[in-house]
Amino acid sequence: MQTNLSEQAKALPRGAEAESILRSCVHCGFCNATCPTYQLLGDELDGPRGRIYLIKQVLEGSPVTAKTQLHLDRCLTCRNCESTCPSGVDYHNLLDIGRAVVDAAVPRPLEQRLLRQGLRAVLPRPALFKALTRLGEAFRPLLPASLGAKLPRQLRPAKPRPPLRHDRRVLLLEGCVQPGLSPNTNAATARVLDRLGIGITPIREAGCCGALDYHLDAQQQGLARARQNIDAWWPAIEAGAEAIVQTASGCGAFVKDYGHLLEQDPAYAAKARRVSALAKDLVEVLQAEPLESLGVRADQRLAFHCPCTLQHAQKLGGAVEGVLTRLGFQLSAVPDSHLCCGSAGTYSLTQPALSRQLRDNKLDALESGQPQVIATANIGCQTHLDGAGRTPVRHWIELVEEAMH
Ligand code: SF4
Ligand code: SF4
To answer: 162-166: long-range contacts at Cβ-Cβ below 8 A with a sequence spacing of 24 or more?
Structure first.
C-alpha cells in the first residue's frame, strides 16, 4: 500500500522498517478470517487489516486517540494473521513500532498504569513471584475467584534434577513465572534430556527473557533484560553449549527475536544474532533425538493445545504432536487449533472479558475429543486454561517424563 510517513515517523529508529512493512500489505483482508478478536467483535478496527491501517494513520501524522490505543491493546499478538497473510506482512514488528508511538502519545488512566507497573514489578522476578504465589495458595479461600483462578490447581513440586555428567551441554532459560507456577516443568526437562545424554549447564545470572516488559509499554526495559541474558549466557556459548533451550514457547519466540530487536545496537547485534540462532524450543531438541531410549510407555489420551507462540511465531505447529505420537500417546483431534486461547502474556489481566471468551471456546474445542488431560507448551496457556477448573492442563514434557521407564 502507498505510504506517506510524517517527518517525525521517518526519524524513528525503526521508521524505515515500519514503512517497508506497511508497503508490503496489499489490504486484501484475508487475515481477518483467522483473527480471534475480529471473529469475536466483528469490527474492522479489531482485525489485523484495520490495525495496520490505524498504525499507518498514526505514522502519517493523524491525531492519536485513546480509541486507537484500545484497538491496538485488544490485539493478542497471537500472529495468526501472519500465518494467514499471503504477502508475508511482518505484522508483529509493525505492531510493536505502532504501540510504542501510540503509548508515548496517549497517557493511560491511572488504573491501567498501576496494573501494568505492578505486573512489571512482580512477574519478571522469580523469587518474589514464587513467594507471592505461595502466599496466595495459603490464603486461596479468601481470594476473589478471578485471582484464585490464576494460581495452579495442583502444585507439583520439582523432582530432583540429575547431576551434570554428559559432554553434550545445553543452556536452559529457567523463565520467570514458570518456576513459581509449575516448578516441575524444567526439572522434568532436565531428567528427559539426561536420559538422552544431554546435560544442562546452570546459569544463575540469566533471568526473564524480557517479553513481559517489552509488551507492557516498556520496550527499552525488555531489551535491557535481553542484553543481561546475552551477557550471562555468552561464556557458556563460547565454551560450546549447543543450544539455548526454552520450555515456554512465549519466551522462545522472544529470544529468537533478540537478533532482530538488537540489530541496531553495535555492542550486541552480533551476539544477539548468535543467541537467536542457538535458541530452540524443547521440542526442536527432542525431535532430533532417538526417542526410543526414553522407554516411554504412554497410556493417556490427551489433547494438545499448540500455543500461538509455537505455531504462529516459531512456525513449529505439529512438532509436539509429532513427538508425542512417536512416543505412543493417543492424541484427540482439536477443531480450530489455530486459534488463540486468550492467555497471550498478560492479556487475561488487561483484557479479561475477551480473554475469558477465548478460553471457554478453546476448552470446548480441546474437550470435544474427551481427553483425560490437555497438554501444552507454554506456562501462560497452561495456567490460563487450567484455571477454568475443567480438564487438567499440563506441560507436555511432564507427561513424557512421568511415562518414562
Ligand atoms: S496483512 Fe496480509 S492478509 Fe492482511 S490485509 Fe495485509 S496483505 Fe492482506
Ligand atoms: S496478532 Fe492475532 S489478534 Fe492481533 S491482529 Fe493478528 S490475528 Fe488478530
So the answer is: 162/190, 162/191, 162/194, 162/199, 164/199, 164/200, 164/201, 165/194, 165/199, 166/194, 166/197, 166/198, 166/199
Among residues 67, 83, 105, the one where a domain terminates is 105
Q: Atom 2 (ligand 2): residue with closest C-alpha?
A: 78
Pocket around ligand 2 at a 6 A CB cut-off: 35-37, 48, 51, 75-81, 91
Q: What is the CATH number of the domain that holds 90?
A: 1.10.1060.10
Q: Find the 116 Cα to ligand 2 centroid distance in Å.
A: 21
Asked if 212 and 124 touch (Cβ cutoff 8 Å), the reply is yes
Tell me how many domains the chain contains: 2
Say how many Å lie between the CA of residue 30 and the centre of ligand 2.
12
Backbone φ, ψ for residue 380 (5° rounding): -65, -50
- Position 366: which residue type? L
In-domain check, residue 180: no
Residue ID of nearest Cα to ligand 2 atom 4: 75
Q: Ligand 1, closest atom to CA 29?
A: 5
Pocket test for ligand 1, best of 3, 30, 51, 94 (most atoms within 8 A of CB): 30
* 382 in a structural domain: yes
For position 361, which CATH number holds? 3.40.50.1860
Domain assignment of residue 323, given as a range: 296-402
Q: What is the pLDDT along the chain (405 residues), one digit of tens a residue?
A: 899 999 999 999 999 999 999 999 999 999 999 999 999 999 999 999 999 999 999 999 999 999 999 999 999 999 999 999 999 999 999 999 999 999 999 999 999 999 999 999 988 888 888 888 888 887 777 777 777 778 888 888 999 999 989 999 999 999 888 888 999 999 999 999 999 999 999 898 898 999 999 999 899 999 999 999 999 999 999 999 999 999 999 999 999 999 999 999 999 999 999 999 999 999 999 999 999 899 999 989 999 999 999 999 999 999 999 999 999 999 999 999 999 999 998 899 899 999 999 999 999 999 999 999 999 999 999 999 999 999 999 999 999 999 999
Of 105, 140, 166, the domain-final residue: 105
